[in-house]
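Morning run. Coffee first, then this:
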Amino acid sequence: MKNFSGKILFLDRSDINTDEIIPAKYLTELTKEALKPYCLEDLNLPPFNPKTDVAGKSVIITRANFGCGSSREHAPWVLECNGINLVIAENFARIFRQNMFNCGLMAIQLSPEAIDDIFKTFAGGEAECSTDLDKLVFTISGSGVTKEYKFEVGKFDFELVKAGGWVDYADKKY
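And here it is:
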């Protein structure tokens, strides 16, 4: 199973689309790994710099409708190639969210109030997330503050994540 803990990349914006996650001009690449340097390349969110801000981050926390736009697997793939296995948002585009689970990645939805609390408490500084899938909680620590947040995930999606994605799930079940 993938690691769902680590340093957090805060993206304080709604409607980050798949073309901002991985620009369409790179979709002809032949391997997932070839996508790696282009993660979030077209995201216009000053002072965010994809060349320096993505490295070393394992978790994204953002606002509503993350992954909207074109329905392509390349968006979760580029996150995975960069070591980002967990995205926490108010909500996700339906197909993007399912593509995350199909890749064995975790997409956690929280209320707008909880997301606001996370941004007010932790954004702007170094923060880390620790996830306990068995208890369905994650903990964020930074600036001398630690808070725990509960989440829910559907049973089948949880099984996909635990298996490492759809292909590994199917290999075990069929």
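The domain at 6-173 is CATH 3.20.19.10 (Aconitase; domain 4). Good start to the day.
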